[in-house]
Every structure is written in C-alpha cells, then in structure tokens.
C-alpha cells in the first residue's frame, strides 16, 4: 500500500481551505444581499409613499396632520380623524384581546387536560387563517345587529357613569369604534394567544415543579415563574397583534362606519387610515390621491413607531434582567 506524500497531502488541505473560504465568502454575501433586500424594500415603500403624498405633506403638512376635515370637493384634507380611528380601534382591540389570550394560553399550558389541548390549539390556529373579509362580513351581518340591540343598554348603564359615561353615549346604529375594536380583538386574539402558548411551553418543567413543591398555587407559578421567564416574548407577541390591528383594512371598513369625525363616544362611527384608502383610492385623482397616499405614509410611520417602542421596551427589560 503506497503512502501519500506529505507535500501532496498539504497541498490538498490548502486547496480545500481556499475552496471553503471562497464558499463561506459567497454565503456571507448571499445572506447580506437578502438582508439588504429587506431594507431596500422597506426604504422603497417609505420613500414611494412619501413622494406620492408630497403634494399634501410638503404644501400644508401641519394642516394635514392637525385637521379632521375631509372634503374632496374643496380639496381640504386632514389626517387627524383617520389617525384617531386607527389608534382608538387598535387600543380597544388590544385591551380586549390581551387578557383573553393570556387566559387561553394559561389554560392550554397549565390547566387543560391533554386530550383537550390539541383541539383548542387547532381551533385558535384556524381563527388566524380566516381571511379578514370574512371577519368583516360576519361583523356587518351578525355582530352589527347584535351591537345595535345592546347599545341602548350600554347607554342606560355605562353611559351614566362619571368620567367614562360619555364613551358609551350615542345612537344605537351598531356601526362604530367599539364594534370595530371588538372585531379587531377577535382577529388579533389567535396571533397573541399562539405566541403566548408557545413561549409558556418553553419554561423548564423543573422550575414550575419546584414552585408547586413549595406550595405555590397555579396563579403564583404563572405570575412569579412563567411570566418573568417569558416576559420579553410575551411583549413581542402583544406588539405583533398591535401591528396586525393597525394595518387591518377590510374588516374595519365593514363595521367602522367610515365617518370623518372625532367624537367622545365609542358608539359613534369613525374611520381609519386603511379603510379610508380602501374606500376612496379607486376614484381619487390629483390632490385627493396625494392625500390618500400621504395617509399610507402616516400608517407606515405609526407602525414603525409602534415597533420601535416595542424594541426599546424589550431592550430595557433585557437590561433589567441582566442587572
């Protein structure tokens, strides 16, 4: 059996090393290109909407941001009412969806029997796959009549409370900010719940069993063990649902009422940025079209600010945990 010369063996090693280095360089450039493509798409969307709305933003930007007027006949446009409707409906959705999502995730990970966890988790995932237009049709034909029936009761009870009473006073038409917020809550609930359930399952079993062995209740285990361990991921899931609510279009368009007004009552109709664009963009020309594109840029900015706040909160939590 002939032996391989040492010089040939060293040469083969050098060739392989050069080849591996070249492949690694190609792979790094490929990954870098993918990342830059994402940034380019993000920057392109922002710049294109900013340029499309320049006629309104650069000409009279302060009036556009501070006015609630929307009159295509006189070319008088203000973004305050759509921004107000977007933020209010998203806040209502978040207030309603987060506690329910937390309860469902807690039930599935800590309380539910094994035979029930699979069907409930599958049902939640199916809710996330339903198209938004189906939620909108359900909201318009089923939930709006239901809300129109209970809104007089809300006005007679909650509407008489001090401070918050004005929020529940208004005509019982069913369409409005509260209805849109509830429909949005149903839409974002499966996203938040799925994230919470997955991160709750990552908590080491020995940590929870140790707490139970010391006499802790289920609530104490969740509050003192599970939540601190998964706090960052839970907040990330909540902001994921918020981002979904901010950009929702079709479901909100069906049930919001599409009225350019700012009101103290959650029972009154309103509008949102995405619903305004969906309703009017097909027939818009000139300044009207520029105003709608400017609304799209504002929605981009609002979503970016929300995600930035989420990142800052997660970074602050990481520093506190490190300390």
TrEMBL record:
Pfam families: BPD_transp_1. Residues 83-310 form the ABC transmembrane type-1 domain. It is found in: Cell inner membrane; Cell membrane. It is a multi-pass membrane protein. Keywords: Cell inner membrane, Cell membrane, Membrane, Phosphate transport, Transmembrane, Transmembrane helix, Transport. InterPro entries: MetI-like, MetI-like_sf, Phosphate_PstC, Phosphate_Transport_Permease. The chain crosses the membrane at residues 29-51, 79-108, 120-148, 173-200, 291-314. Its main location: membrane. Part of the binding-protein-dependent transport system for phosphate; probably responsible for the translocation of the substrate across the membrane. PANTHER family: PHOSPHATE TRANSPORT SYSTEM PERMEASE PROTEIN PST, PHOSPHATE TRANSPORT SYSTEM PERMEASE PROTEIN PSTC. NCBIfam families: phosphate_pstC (TIGR02138). Belongs to the binding-protein-dependent transport system permease family. CysTW subfamily. This is Phosphate transport system permease protein. The gene is pstC.
